[in-house]
Structure formats: structure tokens, C-alpha cells
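Here is one chain, start to finish.
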Amino acid sequence: MRRRIAALMTQALFEALEHFEALESYEVMWVDSAASSDNIAEGLSGCHGLLVDSLSLLSEPRLSADAFAEGLGLPVGLIGEEPNDREPHNRFAVTAIASEEHLATWLQTVENFAVSQGCQGGSVVVVIGAYGAPGRTRVALALAEQASVSGHPTIVIDADHDDTGLSFLLGLEGRVSGLKNAVQSARVEDVSSDVLLGHCEAVTLKGHKVMVLTGFGDGDAHRAFGPDPYIRLMRALRSAGYRVIIDTAGVPRQSRNTGGQSAEWREKLLVEHFVADADRVVAVVEPSELGLARFLRVWHQMLAQLESSALAVFVPRQHVVSRSHEETHRTLWEYTGLREVFFPPQSQKTDREEPSASRLPSKLVTHLWGDKQELRMPKSATRIPYVDGWRALVQSRRRAKELP
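Its structure:
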């Protein structure tokens, strides 16, 4: 999320701030120093830092307590003047800025203040799974529900070009594709998040607003745009502070017949571009023998090179349970070395009472976003750890095995 800085100064000096490269990634808002106390208070609201050219502005008698209350505790950057007036200096953390190095130091205090206030940036979570394996769409929907319940602005994207099931579940099937229009807009390099948000539909999940970019199942039409607009879309929404959840098409089996071409020359799938630029990847595994075999193929195809902290493997609840959680995890561990696998929380409810979205374990939510609050469910059976001493055994057994 872009940090917002209020500039309480003359307009001429504010325009000169455009030449500071260090401020390019910040949203700098001009607050007229001649404005009323109420307008100044409004300008300071929601900011993470305050730039001024004179401390005398902060000691003006016309500034009410409300104006100070909005800015109280903000890091203050003083341009071109030493802080001699002790009263406002005691109210604010003032840093004299006489060089770009001073500015960089002050911007770090702005970042620290934003973090201390619980200001979190946006993030992108990509939900993937093998072609033919069920569960991706319902997991994406559950993630969108949990992200919105946590109070963060949330966008869920239906990027499954084979089957727009997410749009169907939300009652948005048949409408003009928001994703297609957003990608068209994202062909412009400096596209703003406001333009992209204009293509979204608003739905309510668990009493909270969630924005949706509806999909388009036009076969290979998604390839016409190339990967760049999709990546630009992800990055723009992330920079705007949104939690973005992307439901993707199933990963198909890659043909071994490459026509003599190496794997580097193969055209990447759209989901591969999403995964490469995501903050977190949630891989959905169907725990049957066929489902595990399909996941292992996807693992070797695109997941094995990911950092373990970026990947979360989730096995959603199935109506027909063919094996226990521990058996499923042990199988995954033997072939991949995965030490953490997430399973749904245990519940007393019957399958008929299952909601449309999958139930998520609280530890998975914490892994993805760092949210500490517990869901109102019994403790989930997740993260079955295996001791470090078995790692050598895993490596030797993995080399001796072939995919089922």
C-alpha cells in the first residue's frame, strides 16, 4: 500500500517536490497552509508523514486541537529550517531535511510509523491446482471471504479461462468480463488502480464488500494480450493496498513431444506468469490417488523451485475420504519433502451444512497474510511436522521413486 504524505506548505514548494526521486513511490498530498483548521485536519487524516517548510505553521493559534489530533504522532520532515520552537517539536517527531540523505532517513521513519499503525501493503495470492482436480474455485472464494472479514480491501479475480466457475458461484455469469476489460486497460504502462477498479463488480461475502473481476472463457483468447498486462494488473492492485486472490485454470500435463525444442522455448502458461509474480501460492490437492499423482506432476512442473515460505499446500474437505490427513501428508512428504500441509478445521457439521466456500484453517490465514485472529472453529488438524533427521531418508527415497 502506498504511504501517504501530507505536504503542509506553499504550492510553489509543493511543486518543487516533484523533482525528488525518493518520493516517486509515495502519494504526496498538498495541504494549503492558508486553509482552515478543519481542512488541514481533513488533509492530515490517513497520512503516514507530514512535510512542512516552517514549524511556525504547526504553532498557529488558528489550528484547533482537532487538527493536531489528526497529525499527532506523525513523523514531521522540516525542509530548510532547524527546529527551534520546542513546543511543536515536543508534539511531533521532527527531522530536519537538508539533503536527499536526510530525506531518505525521514522516509524510513514514515515507513516505521505506517507499520506501527498496522498499515499493511497489498498482496497477491494465486490459487492453483492440476487440471481436472476439483476445489480451486471454492478455495479462492473462501480466501476472499477471509480477507474481507479481516477488514482489508479485497479483490478476487476469475482467471480460469477454461471454466469461469467463480463468476458462476457469485451469480455474475453472463456479464461483460471485468477481467478482459481490466487487462485491456492494463496495456497502458501507467494505468491507475482507479481505472482497473472501475471494471469490478461488487459482491457481499459474510457481510463484507468484495470486488470481483469476472472471467471470460474464450478458449485461447486470453493469449492475445500477452502476459505483461496481466502482470501489470496484479502489481497495480497490490500497490493500491488490495488483497488480491486469483483463481486460475487447471495446470495441464505438458506434452513430452516438444518438436526438438528445449523446455526454455516452450510458451509459458498464464498461470505460470501469475505464480512467478505472486506473493503467495496456494496449491489445492485432491487427496485421492489420482489427485495426488496430478499434484506431483504440477509440483515438478512449476512448484519445486518456489521458496517454501511462498507456497501453501491445502487439502480441502472431500465428501468421500479415502485416506487420513496423516497418510495424505506422508505421501506428499515422501515425494516432495513438504513438511507443512494444511487441512480444513475439524467440524461437527455434516456435509449438508457445508457452505459454498471451503473452510480454512486459521494457520493457513496466518501463513498467507499474518492475521492472528482465530476463526470460530475448533482447532484444525494442520501442519503435521516430521523430524529433521528424516531429511536424508526423504532425499534417498525420492530419488528411488517415480511418479505414480
